[in-house]
Amino acid sequence: MPVDVDALVAGVREGKRAAVARSITLVESSRPDHRALARELVTALASEDAPVVPRVGISGVPGVGKSTFIESLGTHLTSQDLRVGVLAVDPSSVRTGGSVLGDKTRMPRLATDPRAYIRPSPTAGTLGGVARATAQSMTVLEAAGYDVVLVETVGVGQSEVTVAGMVDSFLFLTLARTGDQLQGIKKGILEIADVIAVNKADGREHETEAAAKELAGALRFVHRGAKGRWVPPVLTCSGLTGHGVPEVWAKVVAHRESLGEQGVAAKRAQQQLDFTWALVRDELEQRLRRSPGVAAVREAIRAEVLSGALPATAAADRLLEAFDGRPTQA
């Protein structure tokens, strides 16, 4: 069925959920014709006088209870008459091409809240593909009138950096662990986090407070010498009971306010530049995969590399020569 971009734009601007869903499906597609239509759609939806909607990335250690926390936070925000859009990004599908999209089942109250929209978004391909689909999906939600956009990262590692580079504030959730509370938390995460919350404080207040103090000490070390700059606060909360969740959100808002309008504008401008190069890299990889010249030599080069007859460096040169249309060296 042909895609009617004008109808999608009108539907999104009217806040129709079906139009929002179809638009996000379009921007997630890797088909070349869909990618062109997605660019047309996003360009039409983007508006210079549109409100600058808060974009918040949320991630955490495995088992931290991200979905429970996001449901608690989302219902807190909708109770304040705010419309909340949630993008549950699964960069693990960069490897597998798929994922178990259980976010709606883990957020039953928020999933049925008319003021909320939850979109599990597996993105096969590259981290550049994750960036492209997520950034464009945020534009769709903002054009549909959502007041807050929450981006949950399901994966760990580079995916956090990717998402942190697309949002205004990055919230990291962790747990109080027996022994070393810093176990499993990399310094890089502490460097990109704007607010940190120790979750699952219900019935474990002493442990979570101790973990928060230890993390606060680590953050002071990471951000030493940062006079006048934002130092991430560490709070405790319970996504299950909702205790402390409003306070965590207040700190997220405080971080964004600390940037100021010019700071947010400058941050988003830099993100757009970074996004430009992410799009270029993603498009180049897609063209490489579709190249007839590469297709003609791919299997032969694969066989030579697997047999040990051709080193990876030489194989890469031959693939690039095939892509460029230059004669392949023997």
From TrEMBL:
Top class in the EC scheme: transferase
Keywords, ordered alphabetically: Kinase, Transferase
Record Gene3D superfamilies: 1.10.287.130, 1.20.5.170, P-loop containing nucleotide triphosphate hydrolases
Cited CDD domains: MMAA-like
SUPFAM superfamilies, A to Z: P-loop containing nucleoside triphosphate hydrolases (SSF52540)
GO molecular function: kinase activity
Enzyme Commission identifier(s): 2.7.-.-
Record NCBIfam families: lao, PRK09435.1
Family recorded in the similarity comment: Belongs to the SIMIBI class G3E GTPase family. ArgK/MeaB subfamily.
Protein name: LAO/AO transport system kinase
Organism of this sequence: Nocardioides marmoribigeumensis
